[in-house]
Amino acid sequence: MAQRFKAALPYFVGLALAAVLNHLAGTITYPARPGQLGPDVWPRIAIAIIAVVCIYEIAKAFLLGGAHSGVQGIAEHLNAEDEAESEPATGSRLSLLLGGIGLTLAYAVLVPIFGFLLASYLFLILFMYLGGIRNHVAIWGSSTVGMLVFAFIFLKVVYVSLPRGVPPFDQVTQFVMDVVQVR
Amino acid sequence: MVEIFTQLGAGFINCLTPANLVMLVLGIVVGLLVGVLPGLTLVMGVVLVLPFTYQMDITAAIVLLTAMYVSGTYGGAFTAILFRIPGEPLDVPILWDGYTMAQKGRAADALGWTLIAALGGGFISAIVMVLMTQPVANFALQFSTPEYFAIVLFGLSSVIALGRGSLPNAFLSLAIGLLIASVGTDVIYGSYRFTFGMPILADGIEFLVVMVGAYGVGEVLTRLEQGFATKPIAKIEQASTRLPSLRELFRLRWMFLRSSILGNIIGLVPGAGATIASFVSYGVEAQYGRRRREMGTGIPEGIVAPQSASTASVGGALVPLLALGIPGSGATAVMLGAFMLQGVQPGPQILLTSSTMVYTIFASVFLGIALMCVIGFYFIRMLVRVLDFPEAIVSAFVMLMCFIGAMSIRNNITDLWLMIGFGVIGYLLERFRFPVAPMVLGVILGPIAEESFMNTMISFGNDWTVFFTRPISGTIMAAVIITLLLPFLSWSRRRMKAGAASS
To answer: ipTM score of the complex?
Structure first.
């Protein structure tokens, strides 16, 4: 029973989400016109697909015990070898994943403060260490060169508006812009 | 016809201008490298290059992206054949016979067949693309909203039916994509949907943000969880190409044509791309080919079928993009984004308003295919050396490109947060074996589908039967139903076979 519930759990979550979204779709305000469909119809079609699939999968999990016997796309039948190669994640690798997500979130928090250049430089270095590289010269060298190249391309050649950062960190941005001669 | 050839000739001349030529060569090399590196998918590569195109001339930008798209279907075959590392999902079927052939000491032959398949399939599809775009655009001028809706629905159903993963999960992924696309201001009433009071969500969620997140960040997170475990490369001295003889080629001529046309047709379907073309073509050859019992044992048919189909899908995918304004694949969706960022709307009118640009793009496909094969033939060892580069360093820069891509779309940090969110969603979908492609295509095609559906309902007084009663949309809707029934037929056939075998 626990196995069946485990198989059905993601679909219970999906069903609950569908219910919440359906409620939200009902709160969309619009000037109703007689005989015309409202802006909530299209999202509700998508929500209905989610709900139907979730109910089907929950029923399948409880009736068939979560056995993998459903209908699949055509390409799936040809892909058995590819699937056999995929490995389950180990505990230590999960920590890598969480570290990667944490680093990415920290980047998003810090980029308006540190500025694009400094935040990206730190991100590159930390991500490479996280990814298992231990060659310090390669890490610092590639990050420094990479950052200068990116600064030149995106601040001088292809002008993209990227955060400069707040004082005093914006001085770093200014310094790099001077180095790559961006005015 | 004469006019087409004249315009194509002018396109070749335009393509040979220094700016376009540089972009062409750059696109080919980057596309081949993207194809070789397992952590970088073809669509992801095209997405990451997009920010570089913001200040470019539109023609040069599309030439760059098209060249990457073409060569990305070829580069991964090297590593699939030599090292059993499929650089792209589309290279998995090539691996089955290509690697087996290499193990028999015939790696150069396998690479030769790949090159010829890419060249032949690419050229056939490029010719079809040139001949078809104008008639399709002319035909599309007769379309009304029910026809557009039916075409988009056909594209979405094909991706679900032909793709990987369980069918219900694919539907779920698609529905999530459609919901994401519905966030923002509704085009008919101007009312806000699922914006939660956030001003940036009122403008909707850019499909490029979803693509960068799901394909870029999602893929890097998946590889990070695997510890960036790319196998070290060896036997680099085997990396040479021996072209098949004319006699050998002649023997496979029909199969060659069949796979190329199949790839082209799959490319034409909005939403279906090179990966689906590769798998389906291999499947057709394994089921109906003359040497079907030998498939997987290292025969040329097992290499030519997927490779020619995947390269042929490129020309096919460009037709709906240019003639209808509907992307034929993930990569062409990015190109649609590039067009729109430059204020150009592809569609039936584009051949009237920007024919020089369109024919330059056509010419770049021909030149790109030829150049890709030349580079692949002479520089294969150099290209596969890129695998020696530590994946963690490559991935760090890929992440950075994703960040730049997200922040530069609307110059807003919120898009960075959204992109990271979609990266995590992309990772979770991949991790729990939900296909990502339907979600992304739902986001891309959802607004077109909704607009044409709602306009049809308004124009035809909420009469949904109009989709079935009009000749063109009715035919396409019948194709939708058949496509959705395909997996069920395949499933019941396998069950019957299994039942017969057990009894």
So the answer is: 0.85
